[in-house]
Amino acid sequence: MAKYRYNPETLKYEARDESAALKALRIFLLVAGALALVYLYFWLYTSVFGFELPKTAILRRSNALWQARTEVLNRSLDQCEQTLEGIEERDDEVYRSIYGLSEVPAELKELGVDAERYSSEEWAGASSSLKQVMLRVDALSRRAYLQSKALDEVGLVARKAGDMVSCVPAVPPIIPDHGKFNMSSPFGFRTDPVYGTSAFHSGQDFAAQRGYPVFATGDGVVEKAEFKFTGYGNEIVIDHGYGYKSRYAHLNTMEVADGMKVTRGDKIGTVGNSGKSTGTHLHYEVEYKGEKVNPMNYMDINMPIDEYKSMVEQRSLESPNGKRSSTSTLIRKRNAQ
Questions:
Q1: Alpha carbons 271 and 248: distance in angstroms, whole number
Q2: pTM
Q3: Residue 22, class by beta-carbon neighbours within 10 Å (0-12 exposed, 13-18 middle, 19+ buried)?
Q4: Is the distance from CB of 279 to CB of 273 less than 8 angstroms?
Q5: CA 170, 174, 179, 184 torsion-angle sign
Q6: 266: helix, coil or strand?
Q7: Which tens digits make up the pLDDT trace of 130-185?
């Protein structure tokens, strides 16, 4: 659009041409001024008056909503973890203890999850709180799966609870006729009869005549039947399962061999004076989950003699002497192997 200027010399209005550079400069200044006004408006709106932009307000409310949901989820996970910890504690201290099962290793429970999974592009825009929640969910799921497998194991053993009752070493190792034996050294610290020093005695001693019969106190498998002149002397170790073992030491004769299955009431040997011993007696031990425990806590030493003999006779009928090998036969069989 042409612009006109009055010329006093010619007394006429004459057209005036503007250069392109001047036009461009004028347009630039107009645009810059407009942008400056817009910036000033938003600055006054947000910084001076403290208002939020509509989109910012929407995003803030949405973020607050998700944060609230995340906190609710975290509280729910806290409750789930407390419940699971209670189940784990009962499993370790009650269920597994009853059935002689080893506790689930702590390092297995605390085994972490793959945190790198949440550093992939798929989770690039996720907040740290959401990633943390997902890590907790994964860890809780893994622990719950591990605990379910542990309880499956307990359930399997519980279905065989009748077998466990017969396996626990729960009767005296000799006929409880108090006129034929004496309770000598008990479980605990005592003065060593050989060295004269204080030492821990890991079993219960039954002083009796040489040849007094010794019986298995629970069902199991003979882990060791060893003839020797030192230490425990001639000894038998029976693995009863469920964490229990029993030892019969300083024997005179043995009527079982390694690997043999025995039942409560089976005659396994006779009282002797072999090994590190100062008199004819039976040294009897009970071991539970690798630790020596007081045998007297597992037996009724005042058990009726008739009841005990009835158990022995029943076992004798079920497993007659003709089917049991003598000590010399067992030695020959082992030497031949």
A1: 9
A2: 0.57
A3: exposed
A4: yes
A5: negative
A6: coil
A7: 778 888 888 888 888 888 888 888 888 777 766 788 899 999 999 999 999 999 88
